[in-house]
Amino acid sequence: MYATNIVAGWSEVLKEKASPADIILWIVLAALWSSSYTAIKVGVQSFDPVILVAGRLSIGAFVLYAILKMNRMPLSRQPEDWKHYAVSGLMGSAIPFLLISYGEQTVDSALASILMGIAPVTTVFMASIVFADEHLTRRIVLGLVCGVAGIILLVGPGALTDLGGDLPAQLSILAAALCYGVTTIYVRRFVKRPPLEMATGSTIVAAGAMIGMMVLSGANPTDIELTATAVGAVIYLGLFSTALATLIYFQLVPRLGATRMSQVNFAVPVGGALIGATVLSETIMTHQLAALGAILIAIFLVTRKPRRGG
User: Fold this and answer.
1) pLDDT at 121
2) Would you tell me how many other CB atoms lie within 10 Å of the CB of residue 6?
3) Is residue 178 within 8 Å of 263, Cβ to Cβ?
4) Rounded CA gap, 68 and 64, in Å?
5) Angle CA(38)–CA(205)–CA(105) in degrees, nearest 5?
6) What is the pLDDT of residues 166-181, one digit of tens each?
7) Which residue ranges of the chain lie beneath pLDDT 50?
8) Nearest-CA neighbor of 240 among 27, 31, 21, 20?
9) DSSP code string of 208-262
10) CB 91, CB 183: distance < 8 Å
11) What is the per-residue pLDDT for 4?
12) Which tens digits make up the pLDDT trace of 201-211?
């Protein structure tokens, strides 16, 4: 009964400033980002991380640009707007995608989920400094603690035993989480262009940067032993976890704010566990269901608008 009240209350929280369409998009984004970790794990078995990221971003850029043209929308010619494309594309896509792909070569997905849990924490703290309407309160801090605890409970405390084992790879995932936090703050603070334009421009910049890095690194795509599974993973990452997810992201950040938007990163490990159970036939344990409750409570506490007079 209590869990039901939490879910109902969380739904009402989002409705305070979000339309039903925004709530659906938020859930879809969580699902898209959740599934990306499974696809990356599959892709890096055949592809070098640089080639994997360059491939997914190139596919995403092509699809978004085609949609932009079909809507008869141009990319901006203003240098200031291209600076926004560059910052959001590099910090929100190219760099974290590469860092996560590199890290997942050796870091267990369970520990990766815990490390990525730092993203909403850093975002909320930074938002409280930058934005006057996003205050850091005891309730929010408690929510963040519940969220991190929920992630640890979800994947199992045993995942922490590997912490520090492969430090460079683990730090790369942690750095990716920080990139996402910085990008969310930047987009809310400075970006005013239409979501489709921003998604397209940022992905084009990110794809160009990764293609350049691929050339400079000497990575040779012809040396790869292609498999249908690996190619399918890259195509999925490009179409859904990059193109569609980026478009939804730029649609939601101005509408939900940095603090609420960042909570999607608490939902991602939950989605990852459910996807793992469906795709990889992994078993959902009782402690994982308890973790879901803790994460829902965390999102409720962080996103709940305080009542007047108390």
Assistant:
1) 77
2) 16
3) no
4) 6
5) 30
6) 778 888 988 998 899 8
7) 1-16, 308-310
8) 31
9) HHHHHHHHHHT--GGGS---HHHHHHHHHIIIIIIIIHHHHHHHHHHHHHHHHHH
10) yes
11) 40
12) 999 999 999 99
Q: What is the pTM of this model?
A: 0.79
Q: Which residues are within 8 A (CB) of 126 and not within 5 positions of it... i.e. 6 or more apart? A: 181, 182, 185, 258
The encoded tokens of residue 239 equal 């179409």
Residue with tokens 């405390």: 157
Query: Helix 167-190 to helix 118-130 angle, to the nearest 10 degrees?
Result: 40
Nearest CA among 300, 107, 290, 97 for reference residue 206: 97
Distance CA 291, CA 273 (A): 11
Retrieve residue 82's tokens.
Answer: 């291209």
Cα distance between residue 231 and residue 55, in whole Å:
10
- Do residues 68 and 306 make contact, with C-beta atoms less than 8 angstroms apart? no
The Cα–Cα gap between 123 and 257 comes to 11
**pLDDT in the model for residue 233:** 94
> CA–CA separation, 230 vs 248, rounded Å?
25
- Where do runs of H (alpha helix) occur along the chain? 2-15, 20-43, 49-70, 79-89, 95-103, 109-116, 118-130, 138-155, 167-190, 195-217, 228-236, 245-262, 264-279, 286-303
Give residues with Cβ within 8 angstroms of 110, minimum separation 6.
155, 156, 159
